[in-house]
UniProtKB/TrEMBL annotation:
GO terms for molecular function: alpha,alpha-trehalose-phosphate synthase (UDP-forming) activity. Coiled coil: none annotated. The keyword Membrane applies. Belongs to the glycosyltransferase 20 family. One of its GO terms (biological process) is trehalose biosynthetic process. It comes from Lysobacter dokdonensis DS-58. This is Alpha,alpha-trehalose-phosphate synthase [UDP-forming]. Keywords: Membrane, Transmembrane, Transmembrane helix. The keyword Membrane applies.
Length: 487
């Protein structure tokens, strides 16, 4: 970004953008993880360059594949540097699975899953946050780097970096919702988390509503001066600017020129999955996570077939569910429940080769997802709670034919921008079933009108604009700090 030219950018996140795995022949294979954070931040790093620090998660044996702590990425056309931190299985268990994903994840999402807080997980979370902060300090070549801290895994990093580099510009982005003070208040270490985050220069959330919840939580639990008018929190004279920056995706999409036509994609998808020739294709794409409302979505599909039997034999729902956190009980139980449900719907409405639910519980590569997006008549996003949700934006971006209907949960941050979608409450089965039915029958003209408008929104508010806003706010704060120093 122009105002920060010459300044170095360090991104720090749990998830790495490129994972090195071993293939069947023992060679290295590079995989892109299923992660909204990576989808959004990776194009920004390609544009800015710098260093990305993340947990090395590949299965490749480090002795077989020469996995350095630092690699240049993207592998085929290096543009920035990826610096890996190797966590022990115990560290990963306590910090990632434990505190972050059994504690903070359910704490911040209203999905009615009870958070689990263990003292030992918290201790590991603290220790691992310290390791990430040390890596930032090692990477910093000046005393005022621009550090982009990502997400709930690293809530303590901003204050840890601030302590050693008081001049650093620390931009923290919280990719998940921030709940109200009553909900957040059950976390035994709420003070530590809040003070950790308030080491940031700028703290970003997807929506104004999450910012408001955060400010109210600070007000409730720590001593701080809050200037609501300017969205600033000061703890002992150190100020943090709290602002909403709705995240998005790259526009144009990578390799857009090489895509097969929607009708070819449709033919390929119909062949590959043995769908009826004139199928109406509904699509869901998610990490296999209980916050994404997959049970509610399948219940709605079932109800729709029950209520509108003319669609039996024609309507097919394809659900991509990429494996995630499956070592946790809560996830395994949920994943089994979804699998049972899709078997039930198929035995109820399927006949011969016709299966109304095609369930694909495996990781797909990007090209396969694009093919599905371009083949689908309807994309259904039913998150029970979601910071933003990028799947709905990817669907819209991949429809340059201006066809297709988006059904979108009102509990996803994206619903605040994507007004031309059919907005639903996923807890309301009837409403969701009716919306999918309406989508299945929508005229091509109405689809076009809605899609054109949605595409304008995603194009104009793309991820470069998201990063641009955060970085220009950062540049403004740096300038202000320098001027104030001189006084
Ligand atoms: C968090 C917040 C926020 C899914 N399956 C595969 C695959 N994906 C990709 C999708 C999309 C991404 O994963 C999922 O993004 P979401 O935004 O829907 O969700 P989270 O991962 O929960 O992300 C979310 C986001 O951070 C950004 O701030 O929007 O609210 O929860 O890009 O396409 N990708 C591949 N194979 C799959 O099988 N390659």
């Amino acid at each position: 970004h122009a105002e920060l030219r010459g300044d170095e950018i360090i991104v720090v996140s749990n998830r790495e953008p490129y994972i090195h795995d071993l293939d069947q022949h023992g060679g290295a294979r590079v995989r892109r993880p299923a992660s909204g954070l990576v989808t959004a931040i990776e194009p920004v790093m390609r544009a800015c360059s710098g260093t990305w620090i993340a947990h090395g998660s590949g299965t490749a044996d480090r002795d077989v594949v020469d996995l350095h702590d630092r690699v240049a990425v993207p592998p085929d056309q290096p543009m920035y540097s990826l610096r890996r931190i190797w966590l022990t299985p115990e560290e990963e268990q306590g910090y990632y699975y434990g505190f972050a994903n059994e504690g903070l994840w359910p704490l911040c999402h209203v999905a009615h899953v009870r958070p689990v807080f263990r003292e030992s997980d918290w201790q590991t979370y603290r220790a691992v946050n310290q390791r990430f902060a040390e890596a930032v300090l090692r990477e910093a070549r000046t005393d005022d780097p621009v550090v982009l801290v990502q997400d709930y895994h690293l809530a303590l990093v901003p204050a840890l970096v601030r302590e050693k580099l008081p001049q650093a510009t620390i931009l923290t982005f919280w990719h998940i919702p921030w709940p109200n003070p009553e909900s957040f208040g059950i976390c035994p270490w709420r003070r530590e988390i809040l003070l950790g985050l308030l080491g940031s220069t700028i703290l970003g959330f997807h929506t104004k509503f999450h910012c408001k919840n955060f400010l109210e939580t600070v007000d409730r639990f720590i001593e701080a001066r809050i200037e609501h008018e300017h969205s600033v929190v000061a703890v002992a004279e150190r100020e943090t600017f709290v602002e909403s920056y709705p995240i998005s995706i790259e526009w144009p999409q990578p390799l857009e020129g090489d895509w097969a036509s929607p009708s070819d994609c449709r033919r390929l998808v119909i062949e590959r999955h043995g769908l009826p020739e004139h199928a109406i294709i509904g699509l869901g794409v998610d990490r296999f996570d209980y916050t994404k409302g997959i049970v509610e979505r399948l219940n709605a599909v079932e109800r729709m077939l029950e209520k509108y039997p003319s669609l039996i034999g024609r309507f097919v729902f394809v659900q991509v569910a990429s494996p995630t956190r499956s070592s946790l009980d809560e996830y395994r139980a949920f994943q089994q429940q979804v699998e049972r449900l899709s078997v039930r719907i198929n035995s109820r409405f399927g006949a011969g080769r016709y299966q109304p639910v095609v369930f694909l519980a495996e990781h797909h590569d990007h090209a396969q997802l694009i093919e599905l997006y371009r083949a689908a008549d309807i994309c259904v996003v039913t998150s029970l709670h979601d910071g933003m949700n990028l799947v709905c934006k990817e669907y819209v971006a991949s429809r340059d034919d201006e066809q297709g209907v988006l059904v979108l949960s009102r509990f996803a941050g994206a619903a605040r921008e994507m007004h031309e979608a059919l907005i639903i409450n996923p807890y309301h089965v009837e409403e969701t079933a009716d919306a999918i039915y309406r989508a299945a029958r929508m005229s091509s003209g109405e689809q076009r009108e809605r899609m054109i408008s949605l595409r304008h929104t995603v194009r104009d508010f793309n991820v470069f604009r998201w990063a641009g806003r955060m970085l220009s706010d950062a540049a403004r704060w740096r300038l202000r700090a320098r001027v104030e120093e001189r006084v």
